[in-house]
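Late entry, written up from scratch paper. The run itself happened at the end of the previous shift, but nothing got recorded in the book at the time, so transcribing now.
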Amino acid sequence: MDSIFKRLDNGNILLDFTEEIETNNFIMKLFAKPYLKSQQKRYMKDLEKELNK
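Output as recorded:
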């Protein structure tokens, strides 16, 4: 996974996740994208929580 953190002119931070996955299993292909999105949301929530301590 590659992640890019970039500070924007307005003071916000842009975070870009890039993940590449490969699977030959059709069922795994169906669940991979929603699973990764949920993991990214959890990461962002945890990161925000830590930064606001």
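The helical segments are 26-51.
(Scratch paper discarded after transcription.)
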